[in-house]
Design a protein that fits this description.
The chain is of the alpha/beta class. It has 5 helices and 5 strands. Helix content is 50%, strand content 18%.
Length: 126
């Protein structure tokens, strides 16, 4: 599995999946409504190289969830999506260390950015 999509809308999950399939990337998606323990198990069972996680208000809570997911998945790349990155960074200043795509995002940006990150990861592992 290349990319795990944890996004708040099933239509967006489907759309991003189609965009990533253009790069021949395998992906699966889930809405984060099942809660953090469910997300940790889901990530572990899918074993993706990269996780695309949607931060949503209240950002104080979603940045805490992100931090805990980082702790349980330290070997994975993370890309964040967010409606207002400045508010997310205000809630969790360390979030600025991670690539954050602001909504609405461009399909080419998603496709090329994630493909590049995964390609770079592959080069580091070879």
């Amino acid at each position: 599995m290349d990319v795990a999509l944890i996004l708040w809308n099933a239509d967006v999950i489907e759309w991003v999946s189609l965009v990533l399939q253009q790069e021949r990337l395998t992906c699966c998606g889930i809405e984060p409504s099942g809660g953090e323990p469910h997300l940790e198990q889901w990530i572990a069972s899918r074993n993706p190289r990269l996780v695309m996680l949607d931060l949503a208000p209240p950002y104080e809570e979603s940045t805490k969830v992100f931090r805990r997911l980082l702790g349980s998945s330290p070997d994975r790349l993370f890309v964040l999506t967010c409606a207002d990155p400045s508010l997310a960074i205000k809630a969790g200043p360390w979030v600025c260390e991670y690539l954050t795509l602001q909504k609405p995002y461009d399909p080419e940006t998603i496709r090329l950015t994630l493909a590049s990150m995964l390609s770079h990861l592959q080069l580091k592992c070879d």
